[in-house]
Amino acid sequence: MSEAPAGPVSRVERAARAGHRAAVVWITGLSGAGKSTLAYACERALFARGCGVSVLDGDRVRHGLCADLGFSLEARSENIRRIGEVARLLYESGQIVLVAAISPLQADRARARALIDPADFIEVYCRCPLEVCEERDPKGLYRRARAGALPQFTGIGSPYEEPAAPELVLDSATVSVAAEVEAVVAELVRRGILA
């Protein structure tokens, strides 16, 4: 009987078993732009294809791993740093990781990108006009921000830096979720992450 190779299981070995490479799809955009909706729809589509896939939803991470953080720019940077580190761990385990987080600062998104092999990181800008996000306002956050109850709310009292060169730009105000999912899956196929 031959011995198993020593050392940790590599991403190449994990990809061979899973039938796909690991990747991080980082979905950024304003609150209400459709990031979580897109992430969960992609998760469902990839799961149906037999992929190992996980979602890191910014809201859910905020209530658990990052519950100790406030909303200053420094705290937001730490929030994104933590999400990036968890995404890296899941990526190294062979998962396709879908991150849905406002991640308002370009420097924080660049730091997350630097943790992942460049061939396996896809930044998706869920572009949606502020007025449309405010109309959607599923949690009433824009209304509260406009009333002064949330003074550091992204897009109102705190900056959102649009991505300089994302791999995908999806106009969530005009494009269906199904079309957005198709675009993400097509990019994963184009890169050879999916067969």
Automatic annotation (TrEMBL):
The keyword ATP-binding applies. PANTHER family: BIFUNCTIONAL SAT_APS KINASE-RELATED, SULFATE ADENYLYLTRANSFERASE. ATP binds at residues 29-36. The lineage of its organism: Bacteria, Pseudomonadati, Pseudomonadota, Betaproteobacteria, Burkholderiales. The keyword Cell cycle does not apply. This is Adenylyl-sulfate kinase. Catalyzes the synthesis of activated sulfate. It comes from Zemynaea arenosa. One of its GO terms (molecular function) is adenylylsulfate kinase activity. One of its GO terms (cellular component) is cytoplasm. Belongs to the APS kinase family. Keywords: ATP-binding, Kinase, Nucleotide-binding, Phosphoprotein, Transferase. Pathway: Sulfur metabolism; hydrogen sulfide biosynthesis; sulfite from sulfate: step 2/3. It catalyses: adenosine 5'-phosphosulfate + ATP = 3'-phosphoadenylyl sulfate + ADP + H(+). Its EC number is 2.7.1.25. Transmembrane segments: none annotated. The active site is at 103 (phosphoserine intermediate). CDD domains: APSK. One of its GO terms (biological process) is sulfate assimilation via adenylyl sulfate reduction. Residues 22-171 form the APS kinase domain.
